[in-house]
Amino acid sequence: MRSPGRVGQAKGIASQEALELHRASLVIDLHVDTLFIQRLTGYDPLRRHKVRTPRPLVWNHADVPRMILGGLSGVGLGIVVNPVLSLPRNRPRIVSWYISRLIDLSFRTSGTIRVALSAGDIRRAKEQGAIGAFLGVEGAHALGGRIDMLDRYYAWGVRYLTLAHFSANRAASPAFGLVGKGGRPGLTGFGYELIDRMNELGVIVDLAHVERQGFLEAARRSRAPVIVSHTGVRGLCPMWRNIDDEQLDAVAATGGVVGIIFSPYFLARSLRTSVDTLVSHIDYVRRRIGWHHAALGSDMDGLILLPDEIRDISDMPMITEALLRRGYPHEWIQGVLGGNALRVFAQVCGD
To answer: What pLDDT sits at residue 4?
Structure first.
């Protein structure tokens, strides 16, 4: 492993000011799917992989060495449970596989990557040149229809739960369904109970993927800040995956944050776009609900493409460079890079 705490020169043109600010900042990516790719393909997150194609593919975006080079202090690692290929009673075993992989990564890197259960864990990871990794389950179907499973997952280290992924479940329905399409809009009674229990335990409510009515009902129900871990905004790119102004307002009313996705398709309905388009989505959030509600949620390794200037997670300083070019004060940039997400983590999961 390379020594922790080093930020490499981005493959784009990042100024010295951007690199220094990035090194000084606490950088959190709310959603990265590297463990999913590991389960799917046997990908080794400990090895530094190279991008060998002219443009990045839909995975091979992140591994621990490139996270270090990208200056990450915290990363949300997604837990994906296939609702078709898994029986409800077997889903806890799949979740436990992800937990064990993260623990294994921490052991094999001697704590360079470590399980983060609180905001303090992420802050200490930054101070010690390490990365605090927290786990997020994509879809309440992973609970197997049992709210008490949330308590087990929390004890195992899960710190956010996305109410729906690409299928309807007992709690909520998705904005778009690959399977189980046609679930009713809005939260179910189970969904309301689930949010209440998440608030009690200290599990962050994630509204990425959730259809609009359920999204708004969940934001109203939650007594704690919510997040949208990876999304674009409809004000710039009107399509099913993105959220509109009323949804942005609902997140802000809870004190939550919106993590902007890196996918060109969700940013611009295109296979290619620039990092400046990504920053335009961040700026839209700032103008609508305030800079302290904007965050990063790349969805790297989530079977997406990336903006032209970002070949992998080591190029995160290009975000800092683009924000500086927009004239953002350093305080705003540090909030977007990770300070805003850390605030929500502290409010919900503890400091």
So the answer is: 37
